[in-house]
Amino acid sequence: MKRTAVAASATAFLLPLSACGGSADAGSGSTVTVTVGYQSKTINTVTAGTLLRSLGSFEKQLNSLHDGHTYKVDWQDYATGAPITAQMTAGKIDIGSMGDFPLLLNAARGKQLGSHTHLVSVTGYNLRGGLNTVVAASGSRLASLKDLKGKKVSTSVGSAADGTLVRALRRAGIDPDKGISKLNQQPAIGASALSSGSVDALSQFVAWPGLLTYQGKAKALYDGAQLNLPTFHGVTAREDFAKQRPAVLDAFLKAQAEATDYLNAHPVTAAEKVAKATGLPAEVVYLYNGAHGIATFDPAVKPQLVSALKQDVSVLKAAKLTGDIDVDSFVDDQYVKKALGTSYAKQLTAAPAPAASEVWPKGSEKTVSFKSARELLTYVAGHQDAVRAAYVPDTTTGTLWFADKAVWVANGDQLLPFVTPSTAQAYVTAHGGARTVSYREALEQAS
């Protein structure tokens, strides 16, 4: 999702099908190369990519097979999901990870080219849609989505970020095709365009909105969680590979489960590992992947996510990127069920951790949680030189955001954070006596 642009040229998907990825036909005693496509900077896929690779969990699982083969993992890093799909349908990548909209295109291209793929597990997800955000330049006068009418907006067509933009504009009464000037750009290009002023806003997936906001280059204009529709990233595998090498796929999914357990048990250390591998600030990684981050991680293919995937098809069809997609035949959780064993049923029904305010002290490998945003502000006010990062959940959506970048509202003794100006204003309008205050004012009031 968070996600991955899929607007590649048609030729990119029509690569020769003669190659055989994963050395699937290797005989006994030979070396089997397993090719994994991942996106290091799409950080909600880390349990199937960046973090998994850094931990060496997959290689350890493969070494434990003792089936007469020697295994080698070829890790291939991509900026988006489109080239992973192209390489998978060409038989050159065995296992890949990407966002929900690109997963659908993965399914469509696989069927089209006779190289079927399946969604086999989930990495990071947000049940409300908070992994996608529309941002404007930090000094922009834009204050709500309605202000985008007639403006230039950068997004990656076919990504979940584009899906968020389309749905949000419709709710705001703006025609997504005619009401704005949409530029189809890769995330990095769009980020540069926003910084240079050549576009008015950017709709993107993790980690771009958080990164630009953290850098002081952007402010949130629309929180994807306002849609209240799940967004997620997942793992897809070639059907022929899964059938020929079920033990290898099982090893991958067991390794993913290990990486997931590691991330959940050591969120700060995991954020540091991902930051080191990607060059992203650890504070931004933690915003999404932390203990109370925007994303929740577990491999189970939850019914809510499958339902959301089915709803996403209409957005891709409207954009003429695909026709009908049989989501039920694309989803295949038999492998992750086997890999997780008796814990699968529990993970299938597990709820995300409740939102909480959190401070990451400087020099610490542990964070401090607070029951309320006001308590966090009181702590920050007394330890300003010792705080590496402070995070607060949006009062209405629960989306975590940087405390110093949030929009604050004072309502009596309450100090309430919001991701966007529009949601803060909606609260003020509905609560007599409430008013917006600056972060500095909020700190002073809390202290």
TrEMBL record:
InterPro entries: SsuA/THI5 (IPR015168). Keywords: Signal. SUPFAM superfamilies: NosL/MerB-like, Periplasmic binding protein-like II. It holds the Pfam family NMT1. It comes from the Bacteria. Residues 1-21 form the signal peptide. Residues 82-270 form the SsuA/THI5-like domain. This is ABC transporter substrate-binding protein. It comes from Streptomyces fodineus. The lineage of its organism: Bacteria, Bacillati, Actinomycetota, Actinomycetes, Kitasatosporales.
